[in-house]
Amino acid sequence: MAATLSPPRILPSGDAAITVEFSRTIDDEANRRVLALDRLLMTSPVDGVTETVPTYRSLLVHYDPLRVDYETLGANLSALAQQPPTRREAARRWRIPVTYGGEYGIDLEETAKALDLSTETLIARHTGATYRVAMIGFTPGWSYLSGLDPTLELSRRLNPRLVTPAGTIPIGGVQAGIQCLAGPNGWHLLGRTPVRTYQFNREPVFLLEPGDEVIFHPIDAKEFIERDRAAEHGEIVAELVAS
Amino acid sequence: MSKLVVTAVGPATSVQDGGRYGAQRYGLTPSGAMDRLALAAANCLAGNPLFGAAIELGPLSATFTARDGAIRVAVAGAPRSAKVGAHDVPLLQSLTLADGESLTLGAARGEVFSYLAIEGGIPGVPMFGSLAVNARAGLGSPYPRPLQPGDELQVAAASMSGERSIALPAKPDGPIRVVPGPQDDEFGNALSLFLDSEWKISGTSDRMGYRLEGPVIKHLHGHNIVSDGTVNGSIQVPGNGQPIVLMPDRGTTGGYPKIATVIGADIGRFAQIPAGRGFRFKAISMKDAQTAARAMDTLLHSLPSRLREPGGFDFNIEALQNANVAGAAVNAFDAGTWQPDNSSGHQP
């Protein structure tokens, strides 16, 4: 029999949710276990579980306390989380266009300077990586990506911007991101994508799933405007590519 | 069809229902009523499903006018004056506005939110099963934003059935019950300070979160954690040590340690505490929190049996019988708040 994995911490988030915590830090292996448990709960539903929220290091499991109590569900989730993974399914891979620099990425030059790189090298390293959607949170479609080239790590801005545009492609610390809606952001803004990871009058409403892979490729401003118009009319302007 | 016209309205007034669940994994917050019990009571009076869409009214006054026919409405939640024309009308009782008549609701007194339910509900296009307004995500029906003067809701014409009132149990006013965690170990002795202190809700609070004013709650290891998931009632503590209780329009994930969580049975009561009034928290065991959840569910589902004809007669025999069952449940609900916590149950 295969050895079991280390037990996660089972933490109470009120009387109707359990946090299954695999790590306290951003940890790639912990995130894989989060996503594996999430997938397991999707494919083999557990009675009383109503929805799950994967994050970098923990899975938040919402449940109905009228159908299952904390002790029972907590023990069940702990056991499930310690099962060795079965075969890993191939992740979907999305190719997402980005217009870098200028008005599209107002921090590109400053970020390159801070990293002691040319803007061309910064773009090449940002588009050269394969990212994984580690979690989606904060606001609809805001996708947190792991897999940033370590030479691009740069601590977040001291003064977060209160308003940044829809489709912003930022990096911050060890993370990369895709911000869907306009809103506050304390990361470094490298570019913008016309892709809507969330669009409520489109099917699917949410483009990316936690666990999906993402690669970026550069497009010029003219192409951004064309694809942005298409996206506005509900077209999915990202491509699914073979992984 | 009749029309309910928003004649005058303050901020923080929007269409809300039981909430939009199932897409928190994509960053979509549930939204929904701040006080589910008051929403359910208003809907019950209007003959609607308990968690159907109604108008959630903020603390300021508002006026609604019936057009193109009569409309039956009911208001529950915060105490406030209610007038049709120059005549006072009671809350917690359905009433029919004749074509052209206006219902004027005064400012909330001692609480914050009220619910105006309309017989037949609010027609709209559900998104993830909900009409609740989430302005940031562009969701909500018929208007994906708070209501404004001049807005019109197409609603059903009033039926001919009799008016009714509802008998609600006295509202508990004990401390707001919490379950410690998930990151109470980030605080050490500051958890006791949090539980032993009097708190006030800041005037800058909104449907995303209630900011608390009180002693500074210090973290053991700093205020940044790796973001994890949040729930309604999560009490996160940012760097300034002043906790924020997350409410239905919260971000689905957050990067501050969460010291405790307001239990589901008390979050509506907590939402009704006005800015500036002092209150306290009390830690209870998970077992007691889940008992309180069951008691609240029983209370919610007892509401139809609590309907009466205005004037005090029981609505029907069946309701009378159900009321006895419901009465027992309500005792359990009240007891959950009032009795000292001697539980030896689970301590997280």
Describe the structure.
The complex is a heterodimer of chains A (243) and B (348). Helix content of chain A is 24%, strand content 28%. Chain A is an alpha+beta fold and 243 residues long. Chain A folds into two domains: 9-81, Gyrase A, domain 2 (2-Layer Sandwich), CATH 3.30.1360.40; 93-241, Cyclophilin-like (Cyclophilin). In chain A, strands 5-12-9-10-7-6-13 form a seven-stranded mixed barrel. Chain A has a four-stranded antiparallel beta sheet with strand order 1-2-4-3. The mean pLDDT of chain A is 94. Chain B is of the alpha+beta class. Chain B has three domains: 2-162, no CATH class; 176-283, Beta Barrel (Cyclophilin), CATH 2.40.100; 286-338. Chain B contains five helices and 23 strands. In chain B, the strands form five sheets. An eight-stranded mixed beta sheet of chain B has the order 21-14-15-18-17-20-13-22. A six-stranded antiparallel beta sheet of chain B has the order 7-6-9-4-1-11, with no helix packed on it. In chain B, strands 2-3-10-5-8 form a five-stranded antiparallel beta sheet. In chain B, a hairpin with a 7-residue loop joins β14 and β15 (209-213). In chain B, α4 runs antiparallel to α5. The longest helix of chain B is centred in the last third of the chain and has 22 residues, at 317-338. The radius of gyration of chain B is 21 Å and the shape is elongated. The relative contact order of chain B is 0.16. Classes of the chains: A alpha+beta (243), B alpha+beta (348).
List keywords for this structure.
heterodimer; A: 243 residues; alpha+beta; Gyrase A, domain 2; Cyclophilin; 7-stranded mixed barrel; 4-stranded antiparallel β-sheet; 5 helices; 28% strand; B: 348 residues; 8-stranded mixed β-sheet; 6-stranded antiparallel β-sheet; 23 strands; 24% strand; disordered C terminus
